Amino acid sequence: MNNNxxxxxxxxxxxxxxxxxxxxxxxxxxxxILSSGNNDSEKGWAIAHYALDSIKNxxxxxYFHPYVQRAIFNKExxxxxxxxxxxxxxxLKLEYYDSNNMQxxxxxxxxxxxxxxxxxxxxxxxxTTEKQRGDSKTDFQTFLRYNDIARRVYPPYLxxxxxxxxxxxxxxLPVKISLCKxxxxxxxxxxxxxxxxxxxxxxxxxxxxxxxxxxxxxxxxAPFDLKHTYNMSMDNGKIYYTPFIDDRMFIxxxxxxxxxxxxxxxxxxxxxxxxxxxxxxRFIFVDGNYANIENDAMKYDLIRRHTYARWAKSGSLFxxxxxxxxxxxxxxxPSYLKQHMKSMYYQIxxxxxxxxxxLLKFAEDIDGLTGEFETGRxxxxxxxxxxxxxxxxxxxxxxxxxxxxxxxEQGIEIYDQWMGLLNLEKLYDELxxxxxxxxxxxxxxxxxxxxxxxxxxxxxxxxVLILGLIVGILQCxxxxxxxxxxxxxxxxxxxxxxxxxxxxxxxxHTVNCKMISRLKDKLSRWCSPKEx
Length: 532
Known about the structure:
The chain is an alpha+beta fold. The protein folds into two domains: 6-422, no CATH class; 448-527. The chain has 17 helices and 14 strands. Strands 1, 2, 3, 4, 5, 6, 7, 8, 9, 10, 11, 12, 13 and 14 form a 14-stranded mixed β-sheet that branches. A hairpin with a 2-residue loop joins strand 13 (317-321) and strand 14. Helix 11 (344-371) packs parallel to helix 14 (424-474).
């Protein structure tokens, strides 16, 4: 058994928070609700502020560009972001089935649990864990299993009879997972993924789109309530959250081991031959049981694209995917690598996850606004919502959409590679196009309704105008107009002819208020009594 390895994993849960009245959603107000005025992280959520009072914070802060610092650190003077932490839980206990269907137990140390709140209704819950002192039995295979099943927040699928078969049959769910407080063995949060009876739940209206969510998440985010569906009615005054993930939390994970590092180092020096490294594939893509791929060419291509190999010859390999950022290195690698994974690279992961969650939120908002077109909602309200959405997107672009997050070469390369793997720029371009088209559609809709009203006014007003002119002509002073009777007869015929032409569809579409006004002026001048 390997006694010289070391590891740490940060689990990240992105979510959106909202309320029915859409008021008081600023991060500072939400942070106050979570903390309830508490200033002691040993008693629950406490609001914290970023200060350059340690070497760790200084190195982490100075790693990023100033505009990034203002966006992600709640340092004094920075607005739009809040940070809360708690240190009352100290142990994460995991019970699971191994490959031989034997139940095993693993424990890790919980260093900190944090929440990052942003002013775009996006939050990130993080749980930082690492190897316990004296742990001599957790090898690389066990560590991969730990990463895979500890991140689960609800069953990915159900077996026959609506049971949570993944717990035993495919072993992708833990038997039980617990967050424990060492001071009181009975003071803990746990989840054992009990079977779900969907037939019963259907009548109780208990489960909606999200059929389950771990008690670990629900208890940590209390007093927030889970929003089960997009159209779910919300009680006034309550804060609701919606996950922006599938059944798995994101992980930032570090593992050091000389033997495993040397194995990958030798393969790299032999010509970047990763197609036989199932372990490295499993680490990147968080496959706890086996490499979930049976195509060697595809496996090679995926590993090549998802590996950052600048330091491969020294045995340090970085990997990134849609739900992970990992580092495997030797035990005698520079000691600062582990800290970098928990600071600078952790912050880059938060940036990428926030950007992805924000873009997904915009996509959801666009879909919701588009659906309201069919409800006959007032166009003015639609325009207000469209303008608000457009404004929020511009704010996001100006404040949180970064082309480059750091002047450091390695950070630039990792961020660029990661953005490409997640297709964030493609998603950004698509949303930008859709928001512009949505704004244009609403403008066209309002213009069409305005034209319709003008046409209606014209339709009613023009005949009245013509009749008024005829009456005016008939009332002209006969003494001032010679042969008035023929003139009046001609005027009546002309007026009736104009009315007939007006009621022709082609004419109705071309006449407008300006034409009417011009015609009225000319006729008025024609009929006005001349000076003697």
